Amino acid sequence: MESIIRALNEFVWGPPMLVLLLGTGLYLTVGLRLLSVLKIPFALRQLFKKPDQHEEGDVTPFAALMTALSSTIGTGNIAGVAAAIAIGGPGAVFWMWITAIVGTATKYSEGVLAVRFREIDHQGRHVGGPMYYIKNGMGKKWIWLGGTFATLGILASWGTGASIQSNSIADALNATYNIPPLVSAIVLAGAAAGVILGGIKRIAHVASRLVPVMAISYLAGGLLVISLHLDAVPSALSMIFSGAFGFDSAGTGISIGLLMLAMQKGVARGIFSNEAGQGSAPIAHAAAKIQDPVDQGLVAMLGTIIDTLIVCTITALVILTSGVLGPECIPTAANAADILASGQPAGCDTGAPLTVAAFDAGLTGIGEHIVAIGLTVFGFTTILGWSYYGERCAEYLFGEKSILPFRISWIVVTFFGAAALMFEGSVANIVNLFWLVSDTLTGMMAAPNLVGLVFLSPVVFAMTKAHFDAVRTGQPKPRYPIIDQRKEAPEE
């Protein structure tokens, strides 16, 4: 079974899916005429704009972005970047940047469609996401595709969002502070219950405070380490750009194997980090208290910039300037093919241990605490963000009566995800297999969403043009109707 799932995972996250994700981002970037890059200053102004009292929605645009970021800033920014560098070489960082740049157009389009085709449920909540813009934008014959996304979303959320995050947190706390997994399980489940039972408003409230504080703290620690090795920054940037195009550090010229290795790992880690195209973030943006979909699309695209271009870059520079990545651990033309085939570096640290070593090189005795606390807080906010994603998917499939049972199931899965560390042998193997299944399902979520994005891209282009034409001429911005389920027959 593990062999079958591993093969499926390699296909889902293999070159075809990465090309599809990157290709969709490039298509949207060109179709939007580089709007997602040129309008960043405009987007920053929208982020902190106070919503009008007549705006439709449940939370502020800022809170919606923090909820989306709560599920993206996490292990991918700390352990994922280190793995990309250790396996793909420093050049992988460049391809992470490229993925983020084209990913801004994807995130913008997801935000626009999420608000344009959202609904108001019978309890007055604003709900949306890929399943809703597929159903309301593409027509009833595509409802099955929205249902497919929602099904995958529930399954992936239990894995990626609940069990894996709580397991990682418990593991980090046990390794660093010797906290028993059972204690972590009880505390995490209790804390999660206290937040998610309050719905999107409480989740957004907590995320709006935890995410900025933790992100700024992590960035401050990273910048301090970089400042201690400031003279190594030019060399680090040189390694990134030369490695990105396959230049062998041994001076033997360009290697196609090195180029492919850097590109594959950089693109894969970049997409894993910012989730552009996966379809999870628009579920949060649909709840924004905003009338114009384009305004929220502009806010949504900032998530990719913050997540990858800022947080991931700081982690990368900490690793590359600290000196912990020795020449023997940088891929060369001679071993690139073997690493590409095996997916493993030879005898070198990777993932979180590499990031810990890099922080400790500059802040001895403190670095491990920065990483452990960062993984804990980012992991917990991911639990909160993904609980909302899974809840909306459950409501789409089974109606509002499924919300409370789903929240209870979330608390239970969070508990057992952390408590599983107490066991060894077959139970531990099952947990590892569950990680693989969850990663596969998370990747599969992207397919229905990408179909919706490409199919509805003319709508995004037209709405964008209408919005900026109105801004330029001083005319009122277009207004779009919202499907209000409260006007329909109530649920039985």
From TrEMBL:
<keyword id="KW-1133">Transmembrane helix</keyword>
<dbReference type="Pfam" id="PF01235">
    <property type="entry name" value="Na_Ala_symp"/>
</dbReference>
<dbReference type="InterPro" id="IPR001463">
    <property type="entry name" value="Na/Ala_symport"/>
</dbReference>
<keyword id="KW-0813">Transport</keyword>
<feature type="transmembrane region" description="Helical">
    <location>
        <begin position="369"/>
        <end position="389"/>
    </location>
</feature>
<feature type="transmembrane region" description="Helical">
    <location>
        <begin position="410"/>
        <end position="435"/>
    </location>
</feature>
<keyword id="KW-0812">Transmembrane</keyword>
<protein>
    <recommendedName>
        <fullName>Amino acid carrier protein</fullName>
    </recommendedName>
</protein>
<feature type="transmembrane region" description="Helical">
    <location>
        <begin position="236"/>
        <end position="262"/>
    </location>
</feature>
<comment type="similarity">
    <text>Belongs to the alanine or glycine:cation symporter (AGCS) (TC 2.A.25) family.</text>
</comment>
<feature type="transmembrane region" description="Helical">
    <location>
        <begin position="59"/>
        <end position="88"/>
    </location>
</feature>
<keyword id="KW-1003">Cell membrane</keyword>
<keyword id="KW-0997">Cell inner membrane</keyword>
<feature type="transmembrane region" description="Helical">
    <location>
        <begin position="179"/>
        <end position="198"/>
    </location>
</feature>
<feature type="transmembrane region" description="Helical">
    <location>
        <begin position="17"/>
        <end position="38"/>
    </location>
</feature>
<keyword id="KW-0769">Symport</keyword>
<feature type="transmembrane region" description="Helical">
    <location>
        <begin position="441"/>
        <end position="463"/>
    </location>
</feature>
<dbReference type="GO" id="GO:0005886">
    <property type="term" value="C:plasma membrane"/>
</dbReference>
<keyword id="KW-0472">Membrane</keyword>
<feature type="transmembrane region" description="Helical">
    <location>
        <begin position="298"/>
        <end position="320"/>
    </location>
</feature>
<dbReference type="GO" id="GO:0005283">
    <property type="term" value="F:amino acid:sodium symporter activity"/>
</dbReference>
<feature type="transmembrane region" description="Helical">
    <location>
        <begin position="142"/>
        <end position="159"/>
    </location>
</feature>
<feature type="transmembrane region" description="Helical">
    <location>
        <begin position="210"/>
        <end position="230"/>
    </location>
</feature>
